């Protein structure tokens, strides 16, 4: 049987849902969805606008990956959830592209949803390969 590691990372705020920060199995690392909260002040207001929230969300993802000894180049698949798909898709893509080198872009699915935690505009999760 494959061993499964559940990561609850010291120094990271607790997940807003009953979940681990990440779960690892067979060299794959599955990150819980991230949103634009400040990891050092989790109750602070979210940044204004989709670009700022996308950047903060991906900075949070990068921080979780770093705590696991990984970086954005290890990411193989991403899911993006937007509450205002038509309005925010283009601007989210511009901010998103800043975080992935052209030759190391993961696969991605992007969907519109009705609402996210704390009225976030975007949530992003990923799968990385160790």
Automatic annotation (TrEMBL):
CDD domains: YjgF_YER057c_UK114_family. GO terms for cellular component: cytosol. The keyword Flavoprotein does not apply. Gene3D superfamilies: RutC-like (3.30.1330.40). Keywords: Plasmid. GO terms for molecular function: deaminase activity. InterPro entries: RutC-like_sf, YjgF/YER057c/UK114. Pfam families: Ribonuc_L-PSP. The keyword Nucleus does not apply. PANTHER family: 2-IMINOBUTANOATE/2-IMINOPROPANOATE DEAMINASE RIDA, 2-IMINOBUTANOATE_2-IMINOPROPANOATE DEAMINASE. This is Reactive intermediate/imine deaminase. It comes from Bosea vaviloviae.
């Amino acid at each position: 049987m494959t061993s499964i590691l559940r990561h609850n990372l010291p120094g990271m705020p607790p997940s807003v849902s009953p979940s681990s920060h990440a779960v690892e199995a067979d060299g794959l690392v599955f990150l819980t969805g991230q949103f634009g909260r400040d990891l050092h002040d989790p109750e602070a207001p979210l940044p204004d606008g989709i670009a700022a929230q996308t950047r903060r969300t991906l900075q949070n993802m990068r921080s979780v990956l770093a705590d696991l000894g990984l970086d954005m180049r290890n990411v193989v698949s991403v899911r993006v959830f937007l509450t205002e798909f038509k309005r925010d898709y283009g601007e989210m893509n511009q901010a998103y592209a800043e975080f992935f080198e052209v030759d190391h872009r993961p696969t991605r699915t992007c969907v519109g949803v009705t609402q996210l935690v704390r009225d976030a505009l975007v949530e992003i999760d990923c799968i990385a390969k160790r």
